[in-house]
Design a protein that fits this description.
Length: about 650
Amino acid sequence: MYKSKEFLYAERGGVVVKRPSSLASLAICTLFTIQTLIMPISIDAAPFHQVEGLVATGTMNSTESNESTESTETDQTESQPTYTNPSHEEINELLETIAKEENIPSIILKAIAFRESSWRQFDASGQPLMNNRAIGIMQIATYDDNDQETIEKLKTDIEFNIRRGAELLNEKWSFTPQIGDGDRNILENWYFAIWAYNIWTDKNNPNVAQAADPPYETYQEKVYQIMAYPKDFLNNYIDPVEVTPLDPELFLDPELMTDKGIPDKNASFETPQPFHYGDLDEDPNGEDPNEEDPNDPKEPQEPQIPENPEDIKFLRLDGEDRIKTAINQALTGWPEGAEAVILARSDDFPDALVGVPLAAAVDGPILLTPSASLDPEVEEAMKTLNPEKVYLLGGENALSMDIEAQLKELGWRTKDIIRLAGDNRYYTAASIANWAAAFGPKYPDSVAIATGSNFPDALSIASIAGTLNMPIILTDSHTLSEPAAAYLEKYDPEKIYLIGGEGVIDPAIQEEIQTRFEKSSEQFVRLGGDNRYETMAEVMQEFSQLSDKLCFATGEKFPDALAGAALAARRQATVVLLPKHKLENYPTLQEAILKHPWQGQSQPVLFGGENAISTEKVEELQELLFQKFEHEKSDSDS
């Protein structure tokens, strides 16, 4: 992954635009800065008022507007009109309509728009989203500087901006090498066009990217990642597709891909296998190749119904100890490297307890290390993952200054090593939650509150919170912690989840929040039971439709579930905490697993070795999951 030293450059049709390589490069390690950092990257700061002729409109502060193309999100004046973004539903409809009209698979246009702007035409202050020359939702930077009418439409008319982006993408399609037979409905065939949408130079040549010091991820690979693992609201508008990349062996063929530069327009590339269809109704020959699910591979592997419980196979991610287990999880989930890595102490949970939403926000794994120094195998994993940013969870007692020194010796700069800490676990949790919110695409509209005195309740919601970009804050059992109160005052979330029964989060805490922050009882959801596994069941049932993937970790210790939840959030899977005793002793948890949407679509994952999840426990899970298929079979027979 790319560890940016300055700024990257992006191009639209030959115009070079200076822009940050990622949101992470905007980070400044002070909580004071967070207050200003959040605003430019929030979405829909105000409700959408109206769309007139598909031009998003807002309240005019003045009859005059600044037409300069050099404005940015932080360079606004009171004389400018303000605008509000359309809803995600309206933007999705526009993207789908224009994609169909321009003969582009909609998932590609949606992913590019998300990569460029997180589906924003206007920033949080109501001004057109500007990044030097780049304008609006598609970050258009190809236009005539003297054509003020076009520039103004690019700024204020979201439909016009999206259509221009689609036209530019089609231009890139026309002058880049053809892949396969040139079928526009095959997602793999758009590799070079997506590359060129950013910049048609060797900056996005995978050979150049991998040979760089340090290596970085190309633009087209980042778009593919969005398509495979859509974050936040995007998950509601596209079905994830793991597009097959070009065969790396092709990059070594001098007739096809050079070490530097760009491939020849006339070079012939075969479509990678298996390939996936988009949602175009017809291909260029007038045929309909995707009468079924448009995002399925051409040769889909249907989930096989097991004949016996032992036919259900698990993927076990483990190691000799908790540190090596976390490393295995990280390298499995981020095989091409990560833009960020979260470091937490391996022997205690408080500081790391709420780290999963941050890991999801920065798209990085959680690694565990002893407090005094960086574990040698963690050091090697860091070199392999090659993150741009490294986040340390907790103060110097949790992760010593020697660890910072080791990271600097390995090549990370001081500004790329970010410590998130506070006076105690509650302040540390609030610090982490603030950073997670800052890197999210919008203000978090919900929050989970868990006790800071033990780990199971917070970990029961961790993977789900990561998937939803929902921060977790900690409190003590009987009174609202001041850091939690400060977070609630700052973000004013619409929905508050209380994780745990009344014994761990007293009803007085909800009453205090309602009184202090003028909340109604309808804005609270308590997910809790008499023990940690009943709480786990309540969480699963509340978010039962969020994911059809399952992961399992012991509920008796924290490390495997903590690091595993970061991977699960990336895969949009639910982590289920398991008891050491038989599952039949926990009927509500059994029922929650039976009702989970998993039906063999993906291989369930075990986090930890046999000391954490025994062979006997695996057999229990096989029997339980097999019942799901038996129930389905009996329902269909009836």
